[in-house]
Amino acid sequence: MSKLSRRNALLVVSALLTMSSTALITACNNEKQVTFKSAGMTHTFSEGSKDLPRELMPFVYPESVVAGATNAHDAEGEQARFLSMSSPDSMEKVTGWYQEKMGQEGWTVDETNKLPRIIIISGHKDDLEVSVTMAEDDGKTTISVSQGKSVDDPVSEKEMDNFSPNELTPATD
Fold first, then answer.
1. Beta bridge mates, 103
2. What is the average per-residue pLDDT within 135-157?
């Protein structure tokens, strides 16, 4: 499995586990944090905003309710973080805040995709990538933030200008 596929799979698994961790942690009646190892990664799930990884603190939307966060890493330096929260603010207001906040924090916004009821902002800073997904959900906006180390160097403008179609990447219209 490629590093990109592994990181994407890790982010999906971390997202799913973070969303279900609140029930697990509450059922266990412990200190609202669970850590375990899986597939060579150490995963730590935290309920609420108390034990958020410092790298995710700038991404906490004002006045939001933080469901929880996941922090995962391995011995080789692979890292991924995930944050889940909700806000009564409109999806458009939340999107505007993230676009402004990312710029203030030195992130480059690479793309903003607007779909019906979902907006996704992706960006990068140094060797990190971030994706912020906002979705309308019964009068509130759910917000999911995933952050991880970049696995590939970005393609330069020169490389794009000199691209030649081949069997693997044929020409398109």
1. none
2. 81
